[in-house]
Specification:
about 30% helix; single chain; 8-stranded mixed sheet; Uracil-DNA Glycosylase, subunit E
Amino acid sequence: MVECRRCPRLVEWRERVAREKRAAFRDCDYWGRPMAGFGDPAARVLVLGLAPAAHGGNRTGRIFTGDRSGDFLMAGLHRAGLANQPTSDTRDDGLALHDCWMTAVVRCAPPANKPLPVERESCAAWLERELPLLRALRVVVCLGAFAWEAALKTPAVIGGPAPRPRPRFGHGAEWDATQSTSSTGTGTQSTSSTGTSERTLLGCFHPSQQNTFTGRLTPAMLDAVLARACALAA
Protein backbone atom coordinates (compact mmCIF):
# COMPACT_ATOMS: atom_id res chain seq x y z
CA MET A 1 0.00 0.00 0.00
CA VAL A 2 2.74 2.50 0.85
CA GLU A 3 3.96 2.26 -2.76
CA CYS A 4 0.52 3.09 -4.21
CA ARG A 5 0.43 5.81 -6.91
CA ARG A 6 -3.13 5.34 -8.21
CA CYS A 7 -4.27 8.94 -7.72
CA PRO A 8 -2.05 11.49 -9.55
CA ARG A 9 -3.50 14.51 -7.73
CA LEU A 10 -2.87 12.98 -4.31
CA VAL A 11 0.60 11.75 -5.22
CA GLU A 12 1.59 15.22 -6.45
CA TRP A 13 0.20 16.93 -3.35
CA ARG A 14 1.60 14.59 -0.69
CA GLU A 15 5.07 14.70 -2.26
CA ARG A 16 5.04 18.48 -2.78
CA VAL A 17 4.09 19.02 0.85
CA ALA A 18 6.90 16.67 1.90
CA ARG A 19 9.41 18.65 -0.17
CA GLU A 20 8.30 22.18 0.64
CA LYS A 21 7.36 21.48 4.29
CA ARG A 22 5.92 23.86 6.82
CA ALA A 23 8.36 26.27 8.43
CA ALA A 24 7.81 24.78 11.88
CA PHE A 25 8.82 21.35 10.55
CA ARG A 26 11.59 22.35 8.15
CA ASP A 27 14.08 20.02 9.89
CA CYS A 28 11.74 17.00 9.74
CA ASP A 29 11.91 14.18 7.24
CA TYR A 30 8.35 13.91 5.93
CA TRP A 31 6.78 10.52 5.28
CA GLY A 32 5.03 11.72 2.11
CA ARG A 33 3.47 8.34 1.21
CA PRO A 34 0.17 6.49 1.73
CA MET A 35 -0.78 5.77 5.33
CA ALA A 36 -1.22 2.33 6.89
CA GLY A 37 -3.56 1.65 9.78
CA PHE A 38 -2.22 1.51 13.33
CA GLY A 39 -3.15 -0.10 16.62
CA ASP A 40 -4.06 -3.38 18.26
CA PRO A 41 -4.63 -6.24 15.75
CA ALA A 42 -7.04 -7.79 18.27
CA ALA A 43 -9.09 -4.57 18.40
CA ARG A 44 -12.85 -4.63 18.84
CA VAL A 45 -13.11 -0.87 18.20
CA LEU A 46 -12.12 0.77 14.91
CA VAL A 47 -11.68 4.54 14.59
CA LEU A 48 -12.20 5.48 10.94
CA GLY A 49 -11.06 8.90 9.76
CA LEU A 50 -11.14 10.81 6.49
CA ALA A 51 -7.48 11.02 5.42
CA PRO A 52 -4.02 11.91 6.80
CA ALA A 53 -3.31 15.57 7.46
CA ALA A 54 -0.72 17.20 5.22
CA HIS A 55 1.57 18.17 8.11
CA GLY A 56 0.29 15.52 10.54
CA GLY A 57 0.26 11.92 9.36
CA ASN A 58 1.80 12.85 6.00
CA ARG A 59 4.77 14.14 8.00
CA THR A 60 5.03 11.55 10.77
CA GLY A 61 3.96 8.41 8.92
CA ARG A 62 1.24 7.50 11.44
CA ILE A 63 -2.42 8.38 11.23
CA PHE A 64 -3.71 11.06 13.67
CA THR A 65 -0.19 11.94 14.80
CA GLY A 66 1.58 15.26 15.03
CA ASP A 67 -1.36 17.67 14.66
CA ARG A 68 -4.11 19.15 16.80
CA SER A 69 -6.79 16.79 15.54
CA GLY A 70 -4.62 13.89 16.62
CA ASP A 71 -3.96 15.54 19.99
CA PHE A 72 -7.69 15.92 20.62
CA LEU A 73 -8.50 12.37 19.55
CA MET A 74 -5.62 10.73 21.39
CA ALA A 75 -6.48 12.48 24.64
CA GLY A 76 -9.99 11.04 24.32
CA LEU A 77 -8.72 7.54 23.54
CA HIS A 78 -6.48 7.75 26.59
CA ARG A 79 -9.37 8.81 28.83
CA ALA A 80 -11.38 5.89 27.46
CA GLY A 81 -8.60 3.42 28.26
CA LEU A 82 -7.92 2.72 24.57
CA ALA A 83 -4.46 4.35 24.47
CA ASN A 84 -1.52 4.18 26.86
CA GLN A 85 -0.75 7.90 26.60
CA PRO A 86 -2.68 11.09 25.81
CA THR A 87 -0.35 12.37 23.08
CA SER A 88 0.68 11.22 19.61
CA ASP A 89 3.76 13.08 18.39
CA THR A 90 5.96 10.77 16.30
CA ARG A 91 5.97 7.19 15.01
CA ASP A 92 8.40 6.14 17.76
CA ASP A 93 6.91 7.98 20.74
CA GLY A 94 5.83 4.81 22.57
CA LEU A 95 2.13 5.12 21.79
CA ALA A 96 0.22 1.84 22.00
CA LEU A 97 -3.48 1.30 21.46
CA HIS A 98 -5.45 -1.28 23.42
CA ASP A 99 -8.53 -2.88 21.83
CA CYS A 100 -8.49 -0.12 19.20
CA TRP A 101 -7.34 0.28 15.60
CA MET A 102 -7.10 3.57 13.68
CA THR A 103 -7.25 3.94 9.92
CA ALA A 104 -8.58 6.23 7.18
CA VAL A 105 -10.84 6.02 4.16
CA VAL A 106 -8.28 7.77 1.93
CA ARG A 107 -4.64 6.93 2.62
CA CYS A 108 -2.91 10.02 1.17
CA ALA A 109 -3.18 13.61 2.36
CA PRO A 110 -5.61 15.45 0.02
CA PRO A 111 -5.47 19.16 -0.88
CA ALA A 112 -7.70 21.18 1.48
CA ASN A 113 -8.52 17.90 3.28
CA LYS A 114 -11.06 17.13 0.53
CA PRO A 115 -10.59 13.89 -1.42
CA LEU A 116 -12.44 13.58 -4.71
CA PRO A 117 -15.05 10.81 -5.11
CA VAL A 118 -12.81 8.99 -7.59
CA GLU A 119 -9.97 9.07 -5.06
CA ARG A 120 -12.20 7.59 -2.38
CA GLU A 121 -13.19 4.82 -4.76
CA SER A 122 -9.57 4.15 -5.70
CA CYS A 123 -8.70 3.76 -2.02
CA ALA A 124 -11.68 1.55 -1.17
CA ALA A 125 -9.77 -1.63 -1.95
CA TRP A 126 -7.28 -0.98 0.85
CA LEU A 127 -10.05 -0.78 3.45
CA GLU A 128 -11.62 -3.93 2.02
CA ARG A 129 -8.32 -5.76 2.48
CA GLU A 130 -7.52 -4.31 5.90
CA LEU A 131 -10.81 -4.95 7.70
CA PRO A 132 -10.85 -8.79 7.40
CA LEU A 133 -7.54 -8.82 9.30
CA LEU A 134 -9.31 -7.34 12.35
CA ARG A 135 -11.20 -10.49 13.25
CA ALA A 136 -12.49 -9.31 16.63
CA LEU A 137 -13.89 -6.00 15.34
CA ARG A 138 -17.32 -5.07 16.73
CA VAL A 139 -17.68 -1.28 16.57
CA VAL A 140 -16.69 1.31 13.94
CA VAL A 141 -16.45 4.92 15.14
CA CYS A 142 -16.84 7.08 12.03
CA LEU A 143 -15.21 10.49 12.37
CA GLY A 144 -17.35 12.70 10.18
CA ALA A 145 -19.92 12.16 7.44
CA PHE A 146 -17.27 11.21 4.87
CA ALA A 147 -16.13 8.23 6.97
CA TRP A 148 -19.75 7.29 7.78
CA GLU A 149 -20.72 7.17 4.09
CA ALA A 150 -17.59 5.24 3.17
CA ALA A 151 -18.23 2.68 5.90
CA LEU A 152 -21.78 2.10 4.67
CA LYS A 153 -20.44 1.49 1.15
CA THR A 154 -17.77 -0.99 2.28
CA PRO A 155 -19.00 -4.59 2.58
CA ALA A 156 -15.96 -5.52 4.68
CA VAL A 157 -17.09 -2.97 7.28
CA ILE A 158 -20.79 -3.78 7.55
CA GLY A 159 -20.87 -7.37 6.30
CA GLY A 160 -23.05 -6.77 3.26
CA PRO A 161 -24.26 -4.24 0.67
CA ALA A 162 -25.08 -0.63 1.51
CA PRO A 163 -28.44 -0.42 3.34
CA ARG A 164 -31.54 1.25 1.92
CA PRO A 165 -32.65 3.74 3.06
CA ARG A 166 -29.20 5.03 4.02
CA PRO A 167 -28.83 5.72 7.77
CA ARG A 168 -28.12 9.39 8.35
CA PHE A 169 -24.89 10.63 9.91
CA GLY A 170 -24.95 12.68 13.07
CA HIS A 171 -22.96 12.96 16.25
CA GLY A 172 -24.03 9.98 18.33
CA ALA A 173 -25.78 8.35 15.36
CA GLU A 174 -25.86 4.57 15.75
CA TRP A 175 -26.55 1.85 13.20
CA ASP A 176 -26.56 -1.84 14.02
CA ALA A 177 -25.72 -4.03 11.03
CA THR A 178 -27.04 -7.13 12.78
CA GLN A 179 -30.45 -5.81 13.81
CA SER A 180 -30.69 -3.53 10.76
CA THR A 181 -31.69 -0.50 12.79
CA SER A 182 -30.35 3.01 13.01
CA SER A 183 -30.67 5.55 15.78
CA THR A 184 -29.78 9.22 15.94
CA GLY A 185 -31.03 9.90 19.42
CA THR A 186 -34.50 10.83 18.18
CA GLY A 187 -35.84 7.37 17.47
CA THR A 188 -35.13 4.16 15.63
CA GLN A 189 -35.97 3.32 12.04
CA SER A 190 -35.90 0.00 10.23
CA THR A 191 -33.51 -0.60 7.35
CA SER A 192 -32.90 -3.48 5.01
CA SER A 193 -30.81 -6.45 6.10
CA THR A 194 -27.05 -6.21 5.55
CA GLY A 195 -25.99 -9.71 6.45
CA THR A 196 -24.80 -11.35 9.62
CA SER A 197 -22.07 -8.94 10.68
CA GLU A 198 -22.14 -8.24 14.42
CA ARG A 199 -20.98 -4.68 13.99
CA THR A 200 -22.27 -1.28 14.95
CA LEU A 201 -21.45 2.06 13.33
CA LEU A 202 -21.20 5.09 15.60
CA GLY A 203 -21.12 8.64 14.28
CA CYS A 204 -18.82 11.27 15.77
CA PHE A 205 -18.04 14.78 14.59
CA HIS A 206 -14.53 14.89 13.16
CA PRO A 207 -11.91 16.27 15.60
CA SER A 208 -10.87 18.98 13.13
CA GLN A 209 -9.95 22.37 14.49
CA GLN A 210 -13.05 23.92 12.94
CA ASN A 211 -15.10 21.61 15.15
CA THR A 212 -13.01 21.57 18.33
CA PHE A 213 -12.19 25.30 18.35
CA THR A 214 -15.83 26.29 17.88
CA GLY A 215 -17.18 23.88 20.49
CA ARG A 216 -19.11 21.83 17.96
CA LEU A 217 -17.13 18.87 19.30
CA THR A 218 -16.14 18.99 22.95
CA PRO A 219 -14.06 16.52 24.97
CA ALA A 220 -17.23 15.42 26.77
CA MET A 221 -18.96 14.71 23.46
CA LEU A 222 -16.02 12.62 22.25
CA ASP A 223 -15.88 10.80 25.59
CA ALA A 224 -19.56 9.87 25.33
CA VAL A 225 -19.11 8.30 21.87
CA LEU A 226 -16.00 6.38 22.92
CA ALA A 227 -17.70 5.18 26.10
CA ARG A 228 -20.60 3.92 23.99
CA ALA A 229 -18.15 2.19 21.63
CA CYS A 230 -16.45 0.41 24.53
CA ALA A 231 -19.82 -0.66 25.96
CA LEU A 232 -20.97 -2.10 22.64
CA ALA A 233 -17.64 -3.88 22.12
CA ALA A 234 -17.70 -5.55 25.53
